[in-house]
TrEMBL record, chain B:
Keyword Membrane (UniProt): yes
Major subcellular location class: membrane
Organism: Lentimicrobium saccharophilum
Keyword flag tRNA processing: no
The protein's name: Sulphur transport-relared protein
Membrane topology: Multi-pass membrane protein
One Pfam family matching this protein: Sulf_transp
Gene Ontology CC entries for this record: plasma membrane
Length: 410, 166
């Protein structure tokens, strides 16, 4: 059922209200966590106070585990979450600059807001400086642009980058965080000249330890998804749909839409292998081979088009398989070209039999004219046999994407 | 407040944010909206033609301030003020290390803010928007930014120790 706003469960106009309410919680917890003092924040770099590290890591891991559990239970559709896109060098350079800013300023943007509102003058100066920095970036945007938009790797996941299974990565992350909690406690006690406890466990982190390790273990040992998620179609209703055949689009309807771009609201998806697509394709079609249709990225993009999707293959089999998968994954508004390309061509390119009488009825004449016109248009247009060449630009899903719904986090 | 409890609660706020809106938290975005709105007021033509600013006038009814992150930050201000006021921490004050003057502290705070503002544009978010929210969704960008911020901090901390420790 979630995320609620992207799914349309909550009016987008209300999202600003929710932003305010979430902000209240964010601000309250940051202030209570002690993030309103620059000296405390800077302590993480000098070993006298590691509160930042404790709060930051606990929060990140709690949310990460929570999201995966919600996803497991089927309460959140991970495909619809905003995953920060990775621009390799821009992220590194930005992080390094921010590291300098952290040491000099003693705040990060969120904490400076928290500190400024309760009267910290240094935080107010920090915010003014921050606006100056943003203005500076905008003023020299043309210089920065190649770095800013360069080395784009898309919305990739860290466990994929590291080549680890997701759940194992999360488990290791929890172990690392817990180890860091113990080590930083020892360092902190030493720097501040406090007698450290004998045992490894400090009473303040026994509970979070048990809780987080428990959840991480749970994720690690849980079997694969037990049941359909809420947004997935259940098998019974899917079966009814399969039998009904409502998904099929007749070749005539498709031809009409291709010939009348104004009335064409279709995203035409060719599910044949890329090689076959390069040799021949319907006008305006994009290629997602059947093997790739299951990828998260493709599913999300198809869902985001907001248009009717038409699948086709040589016959109907591959397209039907793709239809079945996408329907099960919760996409609706998907059609399949009846009989596939083969049927489409018999309809438009094969010689028509002339009736024995030698005359067409009015209706037949009308249909014939349409067929001839379509065949002519297709022969002259894009739908003619093409020699395979690598240079030919292949239209991909990215080209038809509407602009991203939300811009990045901070 | 116990830092682990605070972290857990912050994690819950973050989770609620994802659950309701599909995205995480952010803070520098609001500052950005203020900057862009100001530029739009001063010179609408420049802002509309600028490749970086123009997209912000294309969304939210063309008003950069009608933005999710702006309202989030308004909430942050409200929540923090409530917390600080109730705990008796509100009041004009400058926090600094023992060895520097107020003037040095304020100059350094502004300089640090400048760098953070600049860096958060490259990083597509700050510690909350890029690092924290990015780590919660296990995105590579989140971990990369987090490591770059804190890694740099530790590497250079020694050279700036005069600012913070005696």
């Amino acid at each position: 059922m979630a995320p609620l706003i992207p799914q349309g469960f909550i009016n987008p106009d209300l999202s600003l209200f929710f932003a305010f309410v979430i902000g209240l919680g964010f601000g309250y917890v940051l202030e209570q966590g002690g993030f309103s003092t620059s000296r405390k924040l800077a302590g993480v770099f000098y070993g006298y106070d590691f509160v930042v590290l404790r709060v930051f890591f606990t929060a990140a891991i709690t949310a990460a585990i929570g999201l995966l559990l919600f996803n497991y239970m089927g309460w959140v559709n991970y495909d619809l979450l905003y995953i920060n896109p990775t621009f390799l060098w821009s992220a590194i350079v930005g992080g390094v600059i921010m590291g300098f800013g952290f040491i000099l300023g003693g705040f990060c943007p969120g904490t400076s807001m928290v500190a400024a509102i309760i009267g910290k003058i240094d935080a107010m100066l920090f915010i003014l400086g921050m606006m100056g920095g943003i203005f500076f970036f905008g003023a020299f945007y043309n210089t920065f642009e190649p770095l800013y938009n360069g080395s784009a790797l898309g919305s990739i996941f860290v466990f994929d980058s590291l080549g680890l299974p997701r759940d194992l990565f999360l488990f290791l992350l929890v172990v690392i965080a817990l180890a860091a909690f113990i080590i930083t406690r020892k360092i902190e006690d030493k720097v501040n000249g406090i007698q450290s406890e004998k045992g490894l466990f400090h009473s303040s982190y026994v509970l979070p330890f048990a809780f987080m390790s428990g959840l991480a273990l749970l994720i690690l040992i849980l079997p694969d998804q037990p049941k359909a998620k809420w947004y997935e179609s259940d098998p019974e209703s899917l079966l009814v749909e399969v039998v009904s055949g409502d998904r099929y689009m007749q070749p005539e309807e498709l031809a009409y839409k291709i010939l009348h771009p104004d009335e064409n609201d279709l995203v035409i998806v060719d599910v044949r292998p890329a090689e076959a697509f390069r040799q021949f394709r319907l006008p305006g079609a994009i290629n997602i081979p059947l093997d790739n249709i299951q990828s998260r990225e493709n599913r999300r993009r198809l869902k985001n088009t907001g248009k009717e999707i038409l699948l086709y293959s040589h016959g109907s089999t591959s397209a039907d398989q793709a239809w079945m998968f996408l329907r099960r994954a919760g996409l609706d508004n998907i059609r399949v070209l009846k009989g596939g390309l083969n049927n489409f061509f018999t309809g438009f390119f094969a010689e028509q039999e002339i009736p024995a009488s030698g005359k067409y009825s009015e209706k037949e004449q009308f249909e014939r004219r349409f067929v001839e016109r379509a065949a002519k248009a297709f022969r002259e247009g894009e739908a003619s046999r093409k020699t395979p060449s690598a240079a030919q630009p292949v239209r991909t899903l990215i080209n038809i994407q509407p602009p991203a719904a939300g811009k990045g986090g901070c | 407040m116990n830092p682990y409890l605070a972290g857990f609660l912050l994690g819950m706020v973050l989770l609620a944010s994802f659950f309701i809106t599909g995205r995480g938290l952010g803070a520098s975005g609001a500052a950005k909206s203020v900057v862009i709105e100001s530029i739009g007021r001063v010179s609408p033509e420049y802002a509309q033609k600028h490749p970086f600013y123009a997209s912000f006038f294309a969304t939210g009814d063309g008003r950069p301030m009608k933005n999710w992150l702006v309202y989030l930050t308004l909430g942050v201000l409200g929540g923090a003020f409530f917390s600080g006021f109730m705990s008796g921490r509100a009041g004009l004050k400058i926090d600094k290390g023992p060895r520097i003057s107020n003037r040095t502290r304020l100059i350094m705070a502004a300089a640090g803010g400048f760098l953070f503002g600049l860096g958060s544009q490259f990083g597509r978010g700050c510690t909350s928007g890029a690092a924290l929210s990015g780590m919660a969704t296990l995105s590579s960008a989140g971990f990369l930014t987090m490591i770059a911020i804190f890694g740099t901090g530790y590497v250079i901390a020694y050279f700036f120790r005069k600012l913070w420790i005696s």
